[in-house]
Design brief:
This protein is α/β, with parallel strands linked by helices. The protein contains 3 helices and 5 strands, in the order E-H-E-E-E-E-H-H. The strands form 2 sheets. It has a 3-stranded parallel sheet with strand order 1-2-5. It has a two-stranded antiparallel sheet with strand order 3-4. A hairpin with a 5-residue loop joins strand 3 and strand 4. This is Tail specific protease domain-containing protein.
């Protein structure tokens, strides 16, 4: 597997990107996430009907502790999308991710099932 991320990924995007990388599921490709993982809960209502929020939920990871907040997660393979790429309607991050996925597919053997005889799930005749 490969995963794409960029500097616009925050909150759950930060958490997913860091977890994908931490679990070793495959390379993370793109740009560093923005590092905003402290969550809020809009539950404090004021008498005029407005709501206040404050940071309440933080995330800890076994490799960096609390330090995804205010930093983000670095990709394994850094690929930027430049303004000229956007104008030309090209996506170098996606292109690199496809190339990396194809390389990994060639590198790892495929599982070819050999089911053999089918199990007999009916009642046995005595």
């Amino acid at each position: 597997m490969v995963a794409l991320t960029n500097e616009h990924a925050g909150s759950d995007g930060d958490i997913f990107s860091h977890s994908f990388k931490l679990m070793g599921l495959g390379p993370l490709i793109g740009k560093r996430t923005w590092g905003g993982v402290i969550g809020i809960h809009p539950r404090h209502k004021l008498v005029d009907g407005t709501v206040t929020t404050q940071p309440e939920f933080s995330f800890w990871f076994k490799d960096v502790g609390w330090n995804v907040e205010n930093y983000g997660t670095d990709p394994d393979i850094e690929v930027d999308i430049a303004p000229q790429d956007f104008v030309q309607d090209t996506d170098p991050q996606l292109e690199r991710a496809i190339a990396e996925a194809l390389r990994l597919a060639d590198e790892y053997p495929t599982l070819e099932p050999k089911p053999g005889e089918r199990p007999r799930l009916g009642r046995l005749n005595s």
